[in-house]
Amino acid sequence: MSADSDDRVKKALGKKAAYGEDVDLTKYAVGARDGPVIEDLESSGNEFKGTMQSVGVTTDEDARSGTIMFIDNSLSHCSSCNPEGVEIITTQQALKKYDWVRERIWTAVAPDKDKFTAHTYLEQSDGYFIRVKSGYHIKTPIQSCMLLNADKVIQNVHNMIIVEDDASADVITGCATSPHANESVHVGVSEMFIGENAALSYSMIHNWGDKTSVRPRTGITVGKNSHFTNNYVILDKVGTLQSNPVANLNGPGATAKFNSMCIAHEGSDIDSGSIVSLNSKDTSAEIISRSITVGGRMVARGRLVGNAPGVKAHLECKSIILKDGGTTLAIPELEANISDLEMTHEAAVGKIARDQIEYLMSRGLSEDEAVSMIVRGFLSGGISGLPPQLEAKIKEATSMADLGN
Amino acid sequence: MLEIKNLHAVAGEREILRGVDLSVKEGETCILFGPNGSGKSTLLSAIMGYSTSTITEGQIIFKGVDITHLPVDERAKMGIGMMMQRPPNVTGVKLGDLIRTTADEECAEEVLSEASDFRMSGFLDRDINVGFSGGEIKRSELLQLTAQRPDFLMLDEPESGVDLQSIDLIGNKVHDLLYDQTKCRSGGPKHVSALVITHTGQILDYIGADKAYVMGEGKIRCTGRPTDLLNTIRKNGYGECDSCQQIVTIE
After folding, report:
1. Which residues 6+ apart lie within 8 Å of B59 measured at CB?
2. Count of CA atoms in the C-beta half-sphere (13 A) of A289
3. Are residues A230 and A360 in the same domain?
């Protein structure tokens, strides 16, 4: 990292993000790098167990190929970290260990993109580093957990996932705040590199405090004939959240699928989007965004950029407004830079049709039960294969009591 | 069981029901005949409580309770069940999940396993009515009613749009809903009553009907024995019914 680029990044410390409310980072302390270590996730000493489970992180580690956990800015748990074919260490360890990591870091996300990336770069933040070695197909998911545990601090993490050629894995990331860390900031830079004939399914579940500011910055590159799936779920209250991951499909035949389900509660400001740049021939992409507004502000963005022949892509933003007082803004964008491609989009915002509610009521469901069932089905539409404990969580979050009725 | 007195209802801007008087006794099956647009489906919707029509006058008494302004779910919980002719698509809600929710806990699995008898086992994981054919919608409605076990059944043209092979299946399932008293099947050990709309009368091959009403222009024009009335309508159309006060009621 040259002095030149350091200067450039320092200048970006004052650069506001393109979208979302600005966050004054100088008001927050840097999260501790020497926090508590949790040896056994199942033990009663793990006060975070409930919080972890609420974001799909299981403490039963037999159900996972590996678990890595950060509390604030410190590594607090890493277990079964050497299943065959997988390397799970921290980003700082990987930078020391491998030349190629030093070359790749900050190539999928630009360090001077905005103040959040600049801050992460200059802090030389740590995070998880997951590498799936060539030829290995990891059947059981690998999980990571990011916990905000101190109030008025910034959690600044830098994660990397490498899926080498002819390899595949599922990663589940749960991010949450413990109850006493409400007014904090989470900045997570994540860079994912998927080789050739490879696949990565990445599911991220968020559960923050109602004053937490969340600014993930994610970049993914996908190689020839490889597949990337991103599931994003946020069902609980949050202060402000702005996220807009970018996938670059750089090899022919590569695909990307972004699915998201969001609930914007009263007081929550969510700006959630995805961008797919289809840079190689016969690449395809699908962005499906489902959201519910119950008095909050919801911006659902989607952007497809077609740069190569044979590109096929579809974008779908659907939102139900359950309560007056909120705002929903759906912004689907298609950019075509070549003639031989096919890109479509579909956006719909509205209430639930009365005849559907009454139809379910005629089977004996109360109005609230009928609305919950339709809302749950609506949110889940397009996302399959979520962890079972998350299905229960979705059921709970879509009950009318939790939707503030 | 059900008594309707001078019922008036509007749908859209138009008055569709213009003073309907009708009754169904406990255990009785009544047939509702009438030309298209005479108000038959609106009457069933009004009894179920759907907001597609608004009652402006009159009363609906069910099991001795005035239900004229009760919400739909309370009517369902009192025992009213309906097979709609064109039910809405419910995207995202799986047929199997609805059955699991509505059936008695001890019966849910049995009803689900019976889905194959309805030729519906492949539909349990599908969104309700989305992409279903006419016959599939009928079979899905009957499976849902089997889970619900109402003791007052309203069927809106159960045989319309169904191929000949499936009519037998549908007729037998309607028969079961009315008469099968096995636990987890129909209403269990009680007398199920019904109000059935039919144009062709094919459903009468499967169920015993006690009485028929003929509707015209939002009113009941006459009542009589179902087979007699059906023969008259077949022979002379509905014209005669409009002046048919000579058809003796069987009460």
Report:
1. B3, B4, B5, B6, B7, B66, B68
2. 32
3. no
Q: What is the pLDDT of residues A284-303, one digit of tens each?
A: 999 999 999 999 999 999 99
User: Is B73 in Cβ contact with A362 (below 8 Å)?
Assistant: yes
Q: What is the pLDDT of residue A201?
A: 94
| A194 token code pair | 């998927």
Q: Using the beta-carbon criterion (under 8 Å), do A377 and B82 form an inter-chain contact?
A: no
Distance CA B140, CA A135 (A): 47
Q: Which two tokens stand for residue B247?
A: 């058809």
Residues of B in contact with A374 (CB under 8 A): 90, 92-93
Alpha helices (H) along chain B? 40-48, 72-78, 95-102, 108-113, 134-148, 164-179, 226-236, 239-242
pLDDT at A222: 98
Tokens representing B183? 């636990």
Q: Residue A63 corresponds to which amino acid?
A: A
Lowest mean pLDDT among A77-91, B19-33, B114-128, B219-233: A77-91
pLDDT range class, residue B247, cuts 50, 70, 90: very low
Same structural domain, A123 and A159: yes
What's the domain count of chain A? 2
CB of A363 within 8 Å of any CB in chain B? yes
Element housing B17 (H / E): strand B14-24
Examine the pLDDT at A212 and tell me if it is beyond 90: yes
What's the DSSP call for residue B146? H
Pairwise CB contact (< 8 Å): A356 & B48: no
Query: Could you tell me if A330 and A404 lie in one domain?
Result: no
- Output A380 or A10, whichever has higher pLDDT: A10
A282, A344: one domain: yes
Domain end marker among A352, A367, A386: A352
Answer for the pair B122, B90: CB distance below 8 angstroms, yes or no.
Answer: no
Q: Are B50 and B87 in contact (CB under 8 A)?
A: no
Judgement on whether residues A203 and A102 belong to the same structural domain of the protein: yes
| Chain B contact set for A379 (CB, 8 A) | 92
- Closest to A12 measured CA to CA, from A123, A114, A107: A114
pLDDT over threshold 90, residue B127: yes
Q: What's the domain range around A378? A: 353-405
Mean pLDDT across chain A, nearest whole number? 90
CATH superfamily of B2-87+151-242: P-loop containing nucleotide triphosphate hydrolases (3.40.50.300)
The model's pTM: 0.85
Q: Is there a contact between A106 and A3 (Cβ–Cβ < 8 Å)?
A: no
* Neighbour-count burial for A222-235, b at 16+ CB within 10 Å, e otherwise: bbbbbbbbbbbbbb
Please say whether the beta carbons of A259 and A205 come within 8 A. Answer: no
Q: Are residues A183 and A324 in the same domain?
A: yes
Please indicate whether, in this complex, the C-beta atoms of B88 and A376 are within 8 angstroms of each other: no
CA distance B178 to B153: 8
Does A378 contact B at CB distance below 8 Å? yes
pLDDT of residue B199: 87
pLDDT digits (tens, 9 = 90+) for A25-59: 989 988 888 877 888 887 756 678 888 887 888 88
HEC letters along B34-75: CCCCCCHHHHHHHHHCCCCCEEEEEEEEECCEECCCCCHHHH
Extract the runs of DSSP E, i.e. beta strands, from A195-340.
199-207, 213-222, 227-234, 240-243, 246-249, 255-265, 269-272, 275-278, 284-294, 297-306, 311-323, 327-336
